[in-house]
Amino acid sequence: MLMSAALVLLMTPGLAFFYGGMVRSKNVLNMIMMSVSAMSVVAVLWVLYGFSIAFGADKGGLIGDPAQFFGLRTLITGFAGDSAGVPLAGTIPATVFVAFQAMFAIITVALISGAVADRLRFGPWLVFCAIWVTVVYFPVAHWVWGGGWIGAKLEAIDFAGGTAVHINSGAAALALALVVGTRTGWPKAPWRPHNLPLVMLGAALLWFGWFGFNAGSAAAADGVAGVTFVTTLIATAAAMPAWLLVEKIRDGKPTSLGAASGIVAGLVAITPSCSSVNVFGALAIGAIAGAVCALAVSLKFRLGYDDSLDVVGIHVVGGLLGTVLIGIFAAPQAPAGVAGLLYGGGLGLLGRQTVGAVAVLSYSFVIALVIAVALRFTIGLRATREAEAAGMDESEHAETAYDFAAVGGTARSAVKEGMTA
User: Fold this and answer.
1) What burial class does residue 268 get, using C-beta atoms within 10 Å of its C-beta: 0-12 exposed, 13-18 middle, 19+ buried?
2) What is the domain range of residue 24?
3) Residues 336, 224: contact at Cβ < 8 Å?
4) Of the four, 96, 197, 334, 387, which is 20 to 30 A from 216 by CA?
5) Is residue 186 part of a domain?
6) What is the pLDDT of residues 261-271, one digit of tens each?
7) How high is the pLDDT of residue 18?
């Protein structure tokens, strides 16, 4: 479980590279900083009161008791005296469970940043992170995993975060993008990724870390972890060529950006369903997600919202597909032990999955919209046109990712300058 937690934490730097390579060179450091800063903000709030809200004693199906584990005061104990025992969460130390779940909270917040790349100021981003994770992520995690109404009462399935992580972050990303507004010149100006190898590296790190994300959610090295590891692998493997096929038909060429995006789409879709489907269900969910998300990313041009790095098209759409399709492809022999429509399960599971997905999407979108509007009219959100033109790296951090001046000229001129100096 400690190794799985470390793998999930690695996903956030992987996401930083994935997002960083997709923006222009003058914004790459800012993009990376938005992901990395989430590691700091969320981790502090998680150990203070976030874990308690998410996994404390249930209060009406909506939140956990915020005071129960405040500062983890009742969990770091049991080391003095023979009669004392270390608190457990199931069969593992409670502090290990705290660490594992902290990584989920961190990457959920970091995912939001991709929708507002190139234009959101860094300071307001940190404030948004702190407020949103407190009033949205922590309660939604309780709804889904902590004994709240979605997991315990509705009995909708979300093994590793289709609703709590992906739909949740994607809905917030859409709300924030709408309030911040479009980038200057969008959609006419060219917005090409500045470093595709960095994008591919980020996608590879995400895929690697995702095995801790999904298989680690079994909370044991057992058969459930084995199944979720395999379904995560094959759904992702099916999603990538499905995305590339859509690209080939639509645009004439399969691209490396499409391959990286297809990987992420497959990972997103299998996250909620990895414990409830067999091999064929995982292949179907991955292929459907790859193809549909490839089509969905172009909706922003028709609908007029500037989702810079396709957070909505991949995480909302992929999360919805992965969550709802459990109602169709769930196989009774899989660890979850439930039957979808294809296995004679009826409409009940499909309905429960849909209700859970729509509830999280609606709550996250509305609350994120309120937070964003409040920040816009108080401390402000968006960089000035001048700062946006200069680049967020320079305007927000007084840094540049690449010092092109240092590599100007020829090797001979560099030697000559060194000798004269």
Assistant:
1) buried
2) 1-397
3) no
4) 197
5) yes
6) 999 999 999 99
7) 98
Q: Is residue 6 part of a domain?
A: yes
Number of structural domains found in the chain: 1
pLDDT at 81: 64
pLDDT in the model for residue 192:
92
pLDDT at site 189: 84
Question: Residue 85's pLDDT is what?
Answer: 82
The CATH number of residue 103's host domain is 1.10.3430.10
Sign of the dihedral defined by the CA atoms of residues 108, 150, 363, 115, in that order: positive
Overall pTM surpassing 0.85 (yes/no): yes
The two tokens of residue 399 are 């840094």
Decide if 413 is inside a domain.
no
The verdict on whether omega for the bond into residue 187 sits within 30 degrees of 0, i.e. cis, is yes
- Burial code of 333-352, b = ≥16 C-beta within 10 A, e = fewer? ebbbebbbeebebeeebbeb
CA dihedral (67, 72, 75, 76) positive or negative = negative
Answer whether 296's CB lies under 8 Å from 307's CB: no
Which of the residues in the chain have pLDDT under 50? 409-421
- Quick one: pLDDT at residue 408? 54
C-alpha torsion angle, residues 318, 319, 320, 321 (rounded to 10): 50
Report the pLDDT value the prediction gives residue 80, as an integer from 0 to 100: 72
Residue 385 CB neighbours (<10 A): 10
182 domain-assigned: yes
